[in-house]
Write a structure and sequence with these properties.
- The protein is an alpha+beta fold and 320 residues long.
- It is 20% helix and 24% strand.
- The chain has 8 helices and 14 strands.
- The strands form 3 sheets. Strands 8-7-6-2-10-1-11-12-13-14 form a 10-stranded antiparallel β-sheet, sandwiched between helices. It has a two-stranded antiparallel sheet with strand order 3-9.
- The longest helix has 13 residues.
- About 5% of the residues have low confidence.
Length: 320
Amino acid sequence: MPNMTREELQTTLTTEFGSAAAAELIKFALPTAHMALEACPAEGIPTGASRYGGEPDVPAGFVWPTCATRRGHKPEGLVYPLTFVAQVNFAEAAPCLKSDPLWPSDGTLLFFFDSICMPNGLYDPADAAGLRLLYVPAGTPIQRMHAPPHTPPTPSDASKFVLSARRIAFRPGWTLPEPEYAFDPESEFGFAFDPDGENDNPDYDYGHDWWREIFKTGREPYHRLGGYAAPEQYDPRSDCARAARGHFAVTTKIGRLEHQKLAQAAPQSDGPWRLLLQFDLSAEPDSACGYDGTQFFLCASEASIRSRSFSAAWWSWDQD
C-alpha cells in the first residue's frame, strides 16, 4: 500500500504491533510525493510543469552545465553537456508534502546528470562534476531550452543526451524508513525498535518483513520526492552524507568498513540528511542516472533544502 494516508499507516501499524508500538513508530513517519511518469508529447507539457526528460525550462542567462569524459571513455577529456533528467515544480508537489514544512511550497528544481560516465558518487571526489541542481524561485521568467550541440563520446551514447519527455504526476503517501538499516541506534539516521523482542541485542530489529509487506507489496516503480527511500539494500542518506563531507568509500569490504568509521568522525554541521528524489529505473525505457535494475537516490542536508540552494546534495545507487 505505497500510497496510504497517515491514518491508514497508523491503523496498519496498530494491527501489526499494537497501539503503543504504533504510536512510537508513527512519530518517524514522513509524507512523500510519489511520482508517476506519464508518456506525453513534449509540446503537451506546459512551461514550468514537472517533467522527466525532454527539455528544461530555464531562466535568462542560464548556462548549460558540462563535464568531461573519464574512466575509460574515449576520447578522454572530451567536454559534453550533462543530460537534463527532470524538473520538479514544488507547487505541484506541495499538496503531498504540506505536513512537512521542510519542503518549498513553490519554485522549480532542475536536475542534470552525467549520463555518459555515470559516476557512482561514493568513490571519487571528481564525481561531483557529474551533478548539477538549480532551484528557480517562483515568478522567475523562464523559457524552454534545447540541449546544446554535442559530440557524444561513442555513437551508442547519443540517445542519452535527450530523454523522451514524460509528465510527472504527484500522488500523496506516507513512509517509514527501511528498518534493517534505519532502525539502528548506531546509525547516524537510526533509532531503536524491536517489536518482537526476539533479537539478541534489544536495540536492533532485523525482522523487517512487515516493512516490505506494507511498503513494497508487488514490484512497481518507486519514484518519489521527499519522505524515506524504498531501497533494495541500503538507506542512501548515510552514504550521500559521507561522500558530500569528503569521506569516500573504496571498493573493498575492508575499505567500506573504514568508510563507515570515517563517517562517525565526519562533521555534522550540515545537520540531518533527507531523501530528495528517488528514481526506480527498473521500468523506464531510458535513463540518464543509472543502469537497468538500479535505483537512483538524490539526498541533501536539511540545511541545504531549507536554504533552497541544495548545495550539499549528493547521490548514490542501489541495485536489485
